[in-house]
Amino acid sequence: LQDEETRKDYDYMLDHPEEYYRHYYHYYSRRLAPKVDVTIVILVTVCAISVFQFFSWWSSYNEAINYLASVPKYRIQATEIARQQGLLNKTKEKGKNRRSKEEIREEEEEIIKDIIKNKIDIKGGYQKPKIYDILLFQILLAPFYWCKYVVWYCWWIYCFTIKGQEYGVEEKLYIIRRYMKMSQSQFDSLEDHQKETFLERQLWIRENYEVYKREQEEELKKKMAMDPRWKRYRRWMKNEGPGRLTFIDD
């Protein structure tokens, strides 16, 4: 009875002895209540998710590097750069430091992968992971991001709504990205020539974007119409898809 809440339940029981089941409920609810602080549980869960995110992104990044190292175009370029820098010659040592062909091959492979990592900017879902992108840091930095967004939004209203300034390249691309409903990482993964096409067609103007959107939808319909897989799918939907009644004799 040292706990204040428990003491209140005890005093209530003395004043209302007829509420038998209510007393039992309060008793077992306190006995079986979790002893661990909810804050600690949430913190441990967020940390576990963050660790899983980080290692999952690293795995995806390494898969992308291994794939690029197997593509002849990038492999030949990386090998040529390694030769120019004299990195491949160092692997072929003689005398006591002489190593097996397997060890030399592994070291050359690592050199080529390192060059690809430094020379190629991988974007999108396979880009190099950053520790500030994991859930834990996103939660901790949320107030900073929110203040930053408010300041940026006020600047946007002042420059382009009140003063009527013309959009720069970055602002035009931002408006186009918003029209396309793409995240920043998705938009960054697009090729430079695609972004140049967006600017040439002035897609930051809503009317121009609507025309471009309709053109893309029509082109997608044509591709789907010519795709053998979609033809098989439509044929299956027509002959054996949902809504078809069949009778099976026993």
TrEMBL record:
Keywords from the UniProt entry: Chaperone, Membrane, Transmembrane, Transmembrane helix
Compartment annotation: Membrane
Protein's GO biological process: protein folding
Gene Ontology terms: cellular component: endoplasmic reticulum membrane
Domain of life: Eukaryota
Membrane spanning stretches: 38-58
Main location class: membrane
PANTHER family: DNAJ HOMOLOG SUBFAMILY C MEMBER 25
Protein name per Swiss-Prot or TrEMBL: DJC25 protein
Originating gene: Dnajc25
